[in-house]
Amino acid sequence: MSAGVLVRVICVHGIGQQLAGEQTLVSQWRPALQDGLARAGVTDLLADTDMGMAFYGDLFRPPGQPLAVGDPYYRASDVEPGFESELLLEWWQAAAAAEPQVVAPGGPTLARTPGSVQAALRALSHSTFFGGLALRTLVFDLKQVRRYLTDPQLRAAARARVTDLIGPDTQVVIGHSLGSVIAYEALHALSAGGAHEGPEDGRGHRVRALVTLGSPLGIRNLIFDRLQPPPGGGRGAWPGGPGLVWTNVADAGDVVALVKDLRPAFGDQLNGYVVHNGAHAHDARAYLTDPLTGAAIAAGLR
Q1: Which of 67, 231, 238, 253 has its CA 20 to 30 A from that of 266?
Q2: Domains of the chain, with CATH numbers?
């Protein structure tokens, strides 16, 4: 953690931001966050300088080469068997359940059959949720999630982007999408490490509120069971002391947040809400403008 950091709210972005940066994302998140606070009846708790972005997207950005622009040109054949094809099937099933125009997969073993990846990508192209993504972008997102969970060096580097920003004045951590996984693991690492002890939680950090948005943390086989620290007895570790309030917000149609209720995985003390973001089900800004999100952030700042 950096000495002298005076940031009250740390934001951790989700997948697909490898071409962005700290200041770009802060400029997008800040007005949405302020709107959410205003919807919750709060207008004077957060100054512009109180917010920071733990940016890790560059860790996934391929190095520049002549004539190479943007993401690699992934095809259906680049989706690897195992984690990537199984997560793709989970997204397909969730999209079919939420949107009638998406043809449902034929069965739970489809991800292991030839041509199933192409079928999944074709079906998801008709989804409102995924329809705006190029195929290569969707495959790149799959690979980002897998790499975070299976590459120890990248995982440690991404988590350090969060812990390096958290200081004694940090009160709220907001994690969106994959960023919720990174934020959870970073807070637990600090809690177990014993730094920044304070009266709020008596342990390793002074963060009062963890707010997770569109989180995949509840996906048992692919995400939850791979967390650090590993869950014990089917229950994930609490990422702080008793003073930490964790609020999870999921859109009813958010395919990435497959499991809306995280309480069975992390405990009944977790607060859970389902919201409706319209056509922008997984958009961080849509989550931030909701009054329930604003209220959870405001509670941590008071």
Answers
A1: 253
A2: 9-61+150-301 (3.40.50), 76-144 (no CATH)
Which phi-psi region, left, alpha or beta, contains residue 55 (left: φ > 0; alpha: ψ -120 to 50)? beta
Residues 76/117, Cβ–Cβ less than 8 Å: yes
CB 30 within 8 A of CB 70: no
Which residues contact residue 170 at a Cβ distance below 8 angstroms, ignoring those fewer than 6 apart?
5, 7, 8, 9, 10, 205, 206, 207
Closest C-alpha among 180, 165, 239, 214 to residue 12: 180
* Pairwise CA distance, residues 33 & 53, whole Å: 13
Give the containing element (helix H, strand E) for 119. helix 116-124
Torsion of CA 95, 132, 181, 43, to 10 degrees: -110
* pLDDT tens sequence across 10-32: 999 999 898 899 999 999 999 99
Q: What is the pLDDT of residues 88-137, one digit of tens each?
A: 999 999 999 988 888 888 755 444 554 588 888 888 888 888 877 777 78
Distance from the Cα of residue 220 to its chain's centroid? 15
Q: List Cα–Cα distances, 250 to 91, 107, 133, 145, 259, in angstroms.
A: 15, 26, 21, 19, 9
| pTM (two decimals) | 0.89
- Structure tokens given for 25: 């994302």
In this predicted structure, the answer to whether residue 86 has a pLDDT above a threshold of 60 is yes
Torsion of the alpha carbons at 148, 154, 157 and 158, rounded to the nearest 10: -20
101 phi/psi in degrees, rounded to 5: -80, -10
